[in-house]
């Protein structure tokens, strides 16, 4: 593990949290979309992240930069049922006058957004700690 | 009760092999010099230069809007900065030692 292993690990965490935020923004943006490109109704998405395959012990003892960190495993559509609203005049209304909106739960999306932002900040804090450690180490023997 | 000592280097590891110092300093496993300090420092300076050039490329890609992640650019810049500071510190130590020798009474 070299000096910049912590940088790479924190960077991978930041990438995952940014993806989470992107997906949340996509869900919120499509909150009122009654059509999607494929003709199906938009399904809210969720990000599933996983740890990278590398083992910390191996990377540490063999002095090599194995693939450590986190990564996005998949972006999966949730099974949220569509929200049915009675709007007879709507062009996408069915025979009974019901319009199907995506089952985006705004409260959940806001909580996901806040937690992704905080997790991103935590990654930045870890990276800054590693940077400060390196800078302090360079001060050894200085006057 | 047996408590394992807490150490920075895992037990049973050769320190030089763990940190990759044997190769970096041009020393073989038995400590015999293979290269010299000049080639080591040249290699290190080359690697610092590489990091700075890579940070520069990333900045250009950021300016042209090709970069997906802002934080990767910042991390690249930070790596370049710390590498450069390390190189400057090595140079300072080297010059300090050199001047000490110059001031030596003969």
Question: What would you say this structure looks like, in words?
Answer:
The complex is a heterodimer of chains A (143) and B (106). With 143 residues, chain A is of the alpha+beta class. Chain A is built from 3 helices and 4 strands. Chain A has helices spanning 5-29, 56-61, 106-138; strands at 45-51, 70-77, 83-86, 98-101. In chain A, helix 1 (5-29) packs antiparallel against helix 3 (106-138). The relative contact order of chain A is 0.21. Chain B has 106 residues and is mainly α. Chain B has 4 helices and no strands. In chain B, 9% of the residues are buried. The interface between A and B is medium-sized, with 21 and 17 residues.
Q: Uncertain regions of chain A: pLDDT < 50 for 5+ in a row?
A: none
Strand order, largest beta sheet of chain A? 1-2
Oligomer: heterodimer
Shape of chain B: elongated
Count of individual domains of chain B:
1
* Mean pLDDT level of chain B: 77
Classify the secondary structure makeup of chain A into a structural class. Answer: alpha+beta
Q: If helices are DSSP runs of H or I spanning 4 or more residues, what is the number of helices of chain B?
A: 4
Ends apart, CA distance between termini of chain B:
59 Å
**Largest beta-sheet details of chain B:** none
What composes the largest sheet of chain A?
2 strands, antiparallel
SSE sequence of chain B, one letter per element = HHHH
Tell me the structural class of chain B: mainly alpha
From the alpha carbons, calculate the radius of gyration of chain B and give it in angstroms: 20 Å
Total tally of structural domains of chain A: 1
Q: Stretches of chain B where pLDDT falls below 50 for ≥5 residues?
A: none
How many β-strands of chain B, per DSSP?
0
- Helix fraction of chain A? 40-55%
Question: Gap between N and C termini of chain A, in Å?
Answer: 29 Å
């Amino acid at each position: 593990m070299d000096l910049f292993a912590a940088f790479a690990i924190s960077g991978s965490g930041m990438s995952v949290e940014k993806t989470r935020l992107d997906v949340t923004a996509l869900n919120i943006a499509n909150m009122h979309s009654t059509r999607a490109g494929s003709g199906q109704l938009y399904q809210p998405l969720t990000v599933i992240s996983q740890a990278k395959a590398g083992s910390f012990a191996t990377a540490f003892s063999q002095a090599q930069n194995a693939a450590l960190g986190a990564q996005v495993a998949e972006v999966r559509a949730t099974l949220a049922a569509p929200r049915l609203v009675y709007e007879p005049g709507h062009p996408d209304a069915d025979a009974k006058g019901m319009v199907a909106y995506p089952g985006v739960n705004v409260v959940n999306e806001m909580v996901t957004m806040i937690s992704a932002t905080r997790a991103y900040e935590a990654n930045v804090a870890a990276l800054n700690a590693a940077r400060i450690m390196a800078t302090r180490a360079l001060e050894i023997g200085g006057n | 009760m047996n408590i394992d000592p807490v150490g920075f280097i895992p037990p049973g590891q050769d320190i030089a092999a763990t940190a990759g110092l044997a190769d970096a300093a041009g020393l073989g496993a038995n400590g015999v010099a293979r290269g010299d300090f000049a080639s080591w420092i040249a290699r290190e300076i080359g690697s610092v230069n590489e990091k700075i050039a890579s940070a520069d490329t990333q900045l250009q890609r950021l300016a042209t809007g090709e970069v997906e992640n802002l934080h990767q650019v910042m991390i690249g810049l930070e790596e370049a900065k710390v590498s450069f500071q390390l190189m400057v510190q090595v140079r300072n130590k080297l010059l300090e030692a050199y001047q000490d020798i110059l001031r030596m009474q003969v």
